[in-house]
Amino acid sequence: MRPNFNNYINKLKKVVLVVDDELINREILKAILEEKFKVVEASNGNEALEIIRKEEFYISAILLDINMPVMNGFEFLKEIKADEKFNRIPVLVLTADKNAEIESLTMGAHDFVAKPYVNEVVLTRVVRAIELFEDRTIKQIAERDSLTKAYSKNIFIDYAKIVEKYNPLKKMDMVVINISHFHLIREIHGSKVGESVLIKLADSLRLFASKNEGIVGRGFADYFLLYLKRIEDYSELVNFVYDEFEKDFPGLHIRIRYGIYECNLNEEMEERVDHAKNVCDYLREQNHTDYMIYNDELKKSAVYNETLIHDFKNAIEEKEFIVFFQPKYNVEKERIVLGGAEALVRWQHPEFGLILPYKFIDLFESNGLIRQLDEYVWNETAKQIHEWNERYNINIPVSVNVSRVDLYDDRLEKKLLNITNKYGIDNSMLHLEITESAYSKDTSLILNKIKNLKNLGFEIEMDDFGTGYSSLNMLTKMPFDYLKLDRGFIMEIANDEKNYKMVKLIITMAKTLNAKIVAEGVEFENQVKLLKDLQCNYIQGFYFSKPVRVDEFEKFIEGEK
Amino acid sequence: MITVEKLKSFGANTDEGIKRCAGRDSLYLKLVNTIPSNEGFRNLYEAINNKDFDKAFEYAHGLKGIITNLSLTPLEEPIIYITEELRASHNIDYAPYLAKLEELRLKLEQL
Q1: Percent of chain A residues past pLDDT 90, beyond the cut
Q2: Exposure of A142 by Cβ count < 10 A (0-12 exposed, 13-18 middle, 19+ buried)?
Q3: Residue of A80, A151, A215, A252 with fewest CB within 10 Å of its CB?
Q4: More confident position, A205 or A181
Q5: When comparing pLDDT for A67 and A44, which is higher?
Q6: Contact assessment for residue A343 and residue A555, using Cβ atoms and an 8 Å cutoff
Q7: Nearest to B25 by CA among A31, A322, A427
Q8: Per-residue pLDDT for A180 more than 50?
């Protein structure tokens, strides 16, 4: 059984405001209504307006007496109906007088309740007035994600707002939940298992939510949303979901991240989701914990990120992005020679100074700006290759990053061809670095894209090999010319025999697949020697040089001459 | 001290009144106990005495509401009559009806 939102909302007592100067009438109405509603009282129109405008309670209906001192019922009706924020609250006038009924009706009252009260009539009329009112404002529960039965994001946000209106004083949290490397679960175990994992996660969250006055929505892809009563220790949630998964998927290694935002009543619900998602995304790189509560540090980082996004367009126009080059040396022969370079972008920010790419690449990948940045780098690089050719009569191939996001761009091939044509360089001079993890998502689409690029003559490099989760099967399908061995393998190559053997194995495998090996992050001479012995083709790293500006790089070119 | 039994003997429809209080005898009795000292009676008498019939209607109307809600049947007849006469702005002699009302209020007070 999936909990029904209507049931949930019904469990929360809606608030009815009773406005009558007679204590006895208020007490009786309260006794009648309390079974289904929370009752708030006012003894005249003025008091009622104060209560409504204070917004301590979300008022679902108003029962209004007409004859009252200070501000009578008609005066109150006039005020409330002129108030755009509150004029939709249904008002039931407490009268049996025909003249008063007509006047109230023309002033916007919804119904009448006559004295002496008949309990069932009072309750039925109030319930009906609220239902009619809510039908207008609340959409019916049809908009659920068809797979997981979680609410779609918009509906989730609408309901979260309603939950808050019924519980304005309750402390609530917004949680954004995501499965790390979900695409790999699909890739390795198949899409059916992937779907089951999503359903299981949604079901587990719903079960937890039902015990904590919460609701569950699906953001997009494998992001889920949870809005619930604040709990002291979120390891409860993490452990609960973990145990649920152990029941159905024992042994399935899966990391679920929880970004938590402790809600502030004055913020838009969408903003709260954004904050929680920021935490959830931040946790992607934090392996020591699976959940975290939004804090000031993250807030600073969010503001920083917003500034970067804001400044991006201008930075492209003003050429604040500077391409650095790190040399790659060919170590195949006795004499080590300059074999190419990798283009690495830096941002010379007018306020923050020189910003390294790790601070903005993920950010720009998440919002698509990376496409513009990559195109900028490709362009600057091609221009540079052309200039070096003109000046030194030398062809230096340069690797540029092609983000996962670029691979979904229908115009990618055209963009690259335009650039190489513009500067009259051979396509093979641009080496396209594609990270290993990009290969394992939407395999057939990516595969076709890379084949196209390769057929056009661009050289393909698989970047960060060893950090992702490529299956061997995938490696045989993917066309690539170079395999870039991640620095993680290199660091311990001289100290750890297992590591050394692993590198040896990868190099052998790459050669079997007719690919060349580039070792990244090489810092020491003994590493160079070992890699040379293992017949590694290219070496890049601080041993030769850090990434440098064009003028410094040109010294390496001149050194070759 | 007013009790349900005494109210029954007074002629009040206590079953109806208690039902209206969500079946809570204690609440019903608590509310009925406030009736004899309700300021509405004195205000009504004064307003009629001062020939302020608009005010008198408001007080009468208010008393009618609480008396009928508590199903204090004997008091209902005079208060409804007074209210409707005032609503219709009939220039009648209210004294006998007020006297009847006051007599019943005292009786209720002495239960």
Answers
A1: 51
A2: exposed
A3: A252
A4: A205
A5: A44
A6: no
A7: A31
A8: yes
pLDDT digits (tens, 9 = 90+) for A289-305: 899 999 888 888 888 98
Residues with Cβ within 8 Å of A235's Cβ and at least 6 positions away in sequence, in order, are A291
pLDDT at A6 over 60: no
DSSP, collapsed to helix, strand or coil, labels residue A276 as helix
Other Cβ atoms closer than 10 A to A76: 27
- Single out the residue of A127, A172, A160, A170 nearest to residue A14, CA to CA: A127
The answer to whether A39 touches A33, Cβ cutoff 8 Å, is yes
Which pLDDT does position A1 carry in this prediction? Answer: 33
Q: What is the tens place of the pLDDT at every residue in B23-70?
A: 999 999 999 999 999 999 999 999 999 999 999 998 999 999 999 999
Give contacts of B13 with chain A, Cβ < 8 Å.
none
> Positive or negative, the Cα torsion across A225, A228, A230, A236?
negative
Is the minimum CB–CB distance between B15 and chain A shorter than 8 Å?
no
**What's the confidence (pLDDT) of residue A143?**
62
Cβ A115–B62 below 8 Å, yes or no? no
Q: Residue A462 and residue A515: Cα distance in Å, rounded?
A: 10
**Phi, psi (degrees; rounded to nearest 5) at A385:** -60, -45
* Whole-number CA gyration radius for chain B: 14
> Which residues are CB-contacts of A153 (< 8 A; sequence separation ≥ 6)?
A217, A218, A219, A220, A225, A273
Between A168 and A94, the higher pLDDT residue: A94
ipTM of predicted assembly, 2 dp: 0.91
- Separation in Å, CA of A32 to nearest CA in chain B: 6
What residue type is B67 in one-letter code? I
* C-alpha distance from B22 to closest chain A C-alpha (Å): 5
Q: Is B58 on the interface with A (CB under 8 A)?
A: yes
For the whole model, what pTM was predicted?
0.54
Nearest-neighbour CA in chain B from A121: distance (Å): 11
* Geometric angle at alpha carbon A302, from A301 and A305, rounded to 5°: 85
Q: Do A22 and B66 touch (CB under 8 A)?
A: yes
Average pLDDT over residues A249-270: 88
Nearest neighbour of A25 by CB, restricted to B35, B66, B71? B66
pLDDT of residue A141: 45
Substitution target in A27, A34, A74, A121 with the highest count of B β-carbons within 10 Å is A27
B55/A contact by beta carbon, under 8 A: no
Q: Which residues of B touch A27 (CB under 8 A)?
A: 21, 27, 31
Residues of A in contact with B58 (CB under 8 A): 67
- Best of A24, A93, A118 to mutate (most B CBs within 10 Å, chain B): A24
CA B7 to chain centre: 14
pLDDT beyond 60 at A142: no
Could you give the CA distance from residue A6 to residue A243 in angstroms, rounded to a whole number? 28
Check residue A406 and report its DSSP letter: G
Distance to chain B for A30, nearest Cα, Å: 9
Q: How many CB pairs under 8 A join A and B?
A: 49
Contacts of A31 in chain B (CB under 8 A): 20-22, 24, 27
Distance from CA of B28 to the nearest CA of A (A): 9
Instruction: For residue A160, give the nearest of A57, A11, A263 by alpha carbon.
Output: A263
At residue A140 the predicted structure's pLDDT band, cuts being 50, 70 and 90, is very low
